[in-house]
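task queued by scheduler; priority normal; single chain, no ligands, no partner chains; default sampling; output format set to structure tokens
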Amino acid sequence: MTTVEGAGDYDDGGILSSGTSCEPPLNTPFPPYYGVQMITRLGAPGDRLVRAASSTSSVSAHAARRANGDMNVLLINKDPADDATVTLSYGGFTPSSATPTVYSYRKNATSIGSATTGSATRQTVPAYSIVVLQLRPAR
């Protein structure tokens, strides 16, 4: 096993542990497993990708307009050491002022967390994390 940016890497590219002698128990999820889970929170068949932008170059923003009119935004903080507070903007979507539900997968986490935090236009994204905001449109 090697360590990359503080996380264990078993050099197998796997999503789940094979349970070999140097790995965690069989079927233990590795970080790519949680990455796939976070993508499924971004969108589903019938949704469409729309423009979203972050005010910070270390945070990528991707958005999907849901078939029901809501929007989900996936944020990736590529900085391994620092949290980033970002201002967000969206093409053709005005979010409600309600506090969004935010799902997050943080570096070395063993699950996806959920909280109601920040706003639709301003979020703090933890270092080396993937975050998905669930937004409702303004009425």
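post-processing summary
- The chain has a mean pLDDT of 91.
- The chain has one helix and eleven strands.
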